[in-house]
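Give me the fold.
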Amino acid sequence: MIPQPSWVPVLITLPTLVPMVAAALSLLGGRSPRFQRAIAVGAIAVAFIASCMLLYLTNEHGTFAVAIGGWGDRGFPNGPLGITLVVDQLAALMLVVSTIVLLCVVLYAIGQGIRDGTSQQPVSIFLPTYLILTAGVCNAFLAGDLFNLYVSFEVLLAASFVLLTLGASPDRVRAGASYVMVSMVSSLIFLSGIAFAYATTGTLNLAEMAARLDHVPDGTRNALYAVLLVAFGIKAAVFPLSTWLPDSYPTAPAPVTAVFAGLLTKVGVYAIVRAHTLLFPGGTMDNMLLIAGLLTMLIGIFGAIAQSDIKRLLSFTLVSHIGYMVFGIALSSKFGLSAAIYYVAHHILVQTTLFLVVGLIERQAGSASLRRLGGLIVSPVLAALFLIPALNLGGIPPFSGFIGKVALLEAGVQDGSVLAWILVAGSVVTSLLTLYVVARVWTKGFWRPRADAPEGDLADKAPSALIDESTDIAFDDRADVGRMPIGMVIPTAIMVAAGLVLTFWAGPIIGFTDRAATDITDRGIYIEAVLGGEGR
């Protein structure tokens, strides 16, 4: 085992434990919005600080593991009896990026609530549920056994069901019903995979399972991997398991859509990375993953081209860019994994930012439909907040989107296979089409006069918050012109700046992702940290 100070196990539990306790406290203080806001921001800030400390520690000292309640230390090759939390460089990076997003989005939501008032909004439900979602996301990145990962998924999914249907409008209930059904199917498949894994190896501890799977027949291993890939692929929105996403996310309030788009699918991608590198190394499913990645890229971006609503358009680009991450994973090389990890961090920040900007556009212009928008260039702040992450998503140099895509293309070229070259070409086409999509939003929404829009004379009566209260009226008759609250603009600007950090410090960050990729491909490091002894 790696020597660790006595306080490190406590630090590892904080990103999960603090938001969960804060959720209970905020429920008790539901009659005081100010108390709830303080608890929510404070808890996520603590999770962020703890994640930053874990990032530093893993970079300096390697992988740490803690057996909750002391149910461990049975000696190699027997894993702990109870729940194990493991943090390596990959998990720590995901925690830091995720808690940045979670903190900025909750500040955005609070700014929106302060601007709109909270008397008619379900704020007392929103913040506790949001904290439970935070705990589920963080625990998923730390889970060291398959069942704990399943529980993490269920926690964040239960919270997402509530957040998606806030206000119970017909559109949200309809989208929520679809989301619930797909999630239940995914969970049942995952649970079947857990039963299959336990029957095969006699354990659910990931490190112990990795050691035992080496002695399992190839056919059984491949069958188990396929079951888990389907479960994780649904959660990550990998084609053809992605059709649920564009119909579900756009109906939610702006803060909810932003955090869903940024994080929930990436938890599925993270699970695929863990399964691919720790449990099933050897590349038996690489060709299938490469084909799935290509189809995810192309079909997602073709869907985006056909949309006139910005939220649906961005939902399709979200699906499309999951394909880039699958591409890097499926190459099964350190360079490909490093590029995929960097691209995951980039996409979390940029995609979240764009959905937050759409919330500002709805407030400013009374709609997110390109059929109604125009003339947004009159707000230079809004224009800048959209343009920077849009160019980043489109892969314009020198932004992080360009750096991540070039790294993925280079990894594909190094692979040299015919399928890898096809993915390289597909990646370039997808990037160009993404640029076309965001340029279309820019030209129609910002440069075109609103009078030239087909439905430019219509708008929502008032900016919508957590409850969907959209009512069409003449744009000139809006009582509330939707001025952007500073409490919403500042968190969005922070997200834009966080995305630029990946550009300005690309060298050190890619160096970190290289080390993270080296660690996860040498699975003996993970196994030894959990089991002790000669885990290699």
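The beta strands are 64-67, 84-87, 458-460, 472-474.
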